[in-house]
Amino acid sequence: MKRREFLKKAGVGAAASAVFGPVYAQALPRIRWRMAAGWPRAMVPFGPESGAQYLARRVREITDGRFEISAHAAGELVGTLQVLEAVRRGAVEMGHVYPGWFSGFSPITSFESGMPFGLNTRQQNAWLYFGGGLELLRRFHADINLINFPAGSLSLQMGGWFRREIQGPEDLRGLRFRAHGVGGMAYARLGVTVQNIPTGEVFLALERGTIDAAELIGPHEDEQVGMHRAARFYYYPGWQEAGSTTAVWVNLQRWRTLPRPYQEAIATACREGNERMVAEYDAKNALAMARLIRGGTLFRSFPTSLLQAANRASTELLAELAAKDPAFRAIYTPWLAFKQRSRRWSATNELAFDNFVQRLSAA
After folding, report:
1. Based on C-alpha coordinates, what's the Rg of the chain?
2. DSSP secondary structure string, 292-320?
């Protein structure tokens, strides 16, 4: 946001700015907030130029340093799975999270991050910003004393790391698998023993054999964590959570106390972060994939029979959740209609182009 626009929103005239310069910023208070992130410090969603720290820096820059947010990695204030309660109860002002972690609180949170066989990254952003999705989700969040902002996208994640090859849905039965969200619930219907392990603990759990397989994020992030040292087979696509949107959650009562320019600063920084993270992962995942292949990681596509079984399980699960929970149904019904419209458009133009280009590359 340009300085003149910021001053205008703060109620400060441009003419006065020319005379007194930075003195007018004193019309707005100095505020310090804390943000609890659900990510370990070493991971990109918390890293110095993405996610939580990026958001904090941009808010500071937009407000000329008058609104400062200190970003804290998982475990520094609260653990990953405690962020929701800490923010809604006001122990910290805001959190930076992957909403699907909290499906145990309500499966509605997975609409905010990504549903199994749901919307891809572009479709998810279209639904949130222009398809009514954000408005629907904010009604849910307001009831639990939060306001939410899309703040980054991990894009379509990988399916996960496995110690052995998967040749069909029967190979999933009894598998101890790290997953979360509604996608994890769908995996459970395929006979998987699902464990919702915090992100920072996944590598050690897989390396030590506490679990047999795990989905994390994608090539760049998984390589940084060292997942390729714990398992050899890397499966795709990540059907369990298609859109993979991260979010900033702000305590609603504290949000209402903020001056409007500071609210706009948070909203602007989150929107920037959402766009930026998609581009960052698209660039870095391609490089990491090449490195992993050179290092011996075996990229494998899930068998068609497994994807078909997973799609059936997911479709049945979502319908059942909608049938028994009016709040879930109020979001699911318009979401499903949007998904059907969006897929038809995507298949008409962009998918046709991508498929043709891929055939050219393979020739």
Report:
1. 21
2. HHHTT-EEEEPPHHHHHHHHHHHHHHHHH
CA distance 334 to 107: 16
Contact at 8 Å (CB) between 230 and 203? yes
Does the pTM surpass 0.85? The reply is yes
Distance CA 343, CA 148 (A): 26
Burial of 12 (0-12, 13-18, 19+ CB in 10 A): buried
Strand 94-97 versus strand 245-251 pairing type: antiparallel
Contact 226, 216 (CB under 8 A): no
pLDDT tens for 13-56 read 333 333 333 433 458 999 999 999 998 877 655 554 568 889 99
| Residue among 135, 130, 122, 128 nearest 150 (CA) | 128
**Backbone region of residue 173 per phi and psi (left: phi > 0; alpha: psi in -120 to 50; beta: other values):** beta
9 class by beta-carbon count within 10 Å (0-12 exposed, 13-18 middle, 19+ buried): middle
Q: Which of 278, 214, 285, 196 is nearest to 245 (CA)?
A: 278
Tell me if 199 sits within 8 A of 100, measured CB to CB. Answer: no
